[in-house]
Amino acid sequence: MDIHPPERPAHSIREFLLQIFTITCGIVIALGLEGLVADRRDARLAAETRADFSAELSENLGKVELLRGFTPADEKWINAVLAWGTARLKHTDAKPPSDLQGRRFAVLNNAAWETAIATQATRLLSFAEARALARAYNSQAALNAMSAQAREQWLTVSGYEDVENLTDAELRDALRALHVSLSFTLSLDALESRVISDYKSAQVEIGKAR
Length: 210
What we know:
The structure is a single chain. By secondary structure, this protein is mainly alpha-helical. The chain has one domain (46-100, 107-209). The protein is 76% helix and 0% strand. It has 4 helices and no strands. The chain has helices at residues 13-89, 111-118, 127-158, 168-209.
């Protein structure tokens, strides 16, 4: 905003006051217009930010719910192999395990959160929205970290290909790895449940403001 001096000096108190009044009105109008433009820009950015969050949360929610659908089968297979391995170590007849199951692990996106932080768009959200989103993305970060650890553990398990021909020592090592993998499976299931709950809470808060 530029302020220009009067074209000619005032020759009376009346002219001086008129010039001051004119300048003041101009400043008020200019500030009002700038504020209106800023408000509209912020409103547009807030709407875009909420739309990004809504889309990303929906996508991630779908991934987690899909993974949870496979959890019972994964847990059943691990328990079956553990039972077979334990029986074999006791030299008891047991049905050999089926082929190794292909495990799936979450890779959840956080582009909307990173973008909102980088552009400071989170300041345009309500406190309730920002708190719910922070909780959801913190839970998501924990899930991504645990999923990476579980994936590494599962690679160890998958290294035992021909389980029926393992020596007793190799079988004990494989069973220990499977026990750890089972612990990860149960922990991931609980964490996925929390993530789903936090996602839905964040979606509710975003929905209230849209």
